[in-house]
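so ive been stuck on this for like two days lol. basically i have the seq below and the ligand is magnesium ion, smiles is in there too. i just want the complex predicted, nothing fancy, no docking runs or whatever. if the output looks off dont worry ill sanity check it later, just need somthing to start from for the group meeting slides
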Amino acid sequence: MLKAVLFDFDETLGWRRKYAYRTYMDLITSLTPDLDPLHREAIVQDCMIWDMRGYYSKRFILENLQKKYGLNVPDKDEFYVWWNDTCAKNMVLYDGAEEIVKELRGRYKLGIVTNGSARGQYGKIDASGLAGYFDYRICSNDAESRKPDKGIFLNACEHLGVTPDEVLFIGDTFTSDILGALELGMKAVWFNPTGHPCDYDVPQIKDLRELKNYLD
Ligand SMILES: [Mg+2]
């Protein structure tokens, strides 16, 4: 019997592409105050390619900005702090995110299991306005385990008082969210709004509200 629903955060509840874009725009605007909008947009679009949905290090992006555009980029440690705080400030949720968690609240225990630092991830969750709907949240730095490793999933199960077979996990990254959850015996739903091809038979949704179709 399904007792808990666990969510990934970035690019699942939070529309990361949108808040990352806004944050790169803030960065490039501050570095190129006199540049025209067309060329500024081109630099931001390059940042979005280099960003690889957050999988490439920010150091790589800063180095590229320096090499390709000769920009006087900030120190990387200083930049990490600014990046996390500014992503939180620029938070945008996926359509239906609040609607679905509101609907599930009270019917299931709800958790967020996210890879990243406490400052970055909890800052974004707090800024999202969704924190109050969740019974538990855990980031990989606090769990000392990253998805798809089982430690972080088990940490959430333990805190919510459920076993993996009583959990449904929803996330956008196949390798960390879907693989990790399925290996532990959880149910999994892949949030795949852009329709990445996939031969493996796993439930997929393009809108978070479709999650209702996979609940008991
Ligand atoms: Mg994600």
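The chain has two domains: 4-15+93-214, 16-89. The two ends are 7 Å apart (CA to CA).
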